[in-house]
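ARCHIVE CARD
Drawer: 12
Card no.: 0347
Subject: one protein chain, sequence and derived structure
Cross-reference: see card 0346
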Amino acid sequence: MFGMSMRSGYNNKMGKVKKEIPEDTDADKSADASFLTENKKTYDELLVHLNPISKPLASRKLTRRLYKCVKKASKEKKLRRGVKEVQKFLKKGERGFVVFAGDTRPIEVMCHLPIFCEETDIPYCYVPAKADLGSATGSKRPTCCLLVKEDSAYEDSYKECLKDIKKLPPPV
């Protein structure tokens, strides 16, 4: 074809040609591993992207505990995920605690839910990243809020998180 060579990834019949991928060497694998650890942001780096309404914010230690509790609740199918689902079941009277992502944009998507939680006396807190909150549920999709319900399978973890959330200072 005009101006197209074999190097461009096309053959003479205008079809795409598969490029051969060389086998991974040990050096490539170590480079990939370092790349993965470089992309993982620390707690302090995640705090840069917080919304102004992200109060009360969970500490680093509480954030880790919350992710573990969310993971256990996800295995037991005791989670409500997403703004619409959390709002629907809070209005129906479900109890538990709510975890919000502090880096949700635009904040208008969920800024009414903390007020609703305060009115219905449901404890809530913020964690720094919605991507981490989504991955704690076992999903690749980020999520901006979760309702964690109590269950006997993870009762200790749930009560510990609930106690720590209630200790957080109230939002101003």
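Annotation on reverse: Confidence is low (pLDDT under 50) at residues 25-38. The chain has one domain: 43-167.
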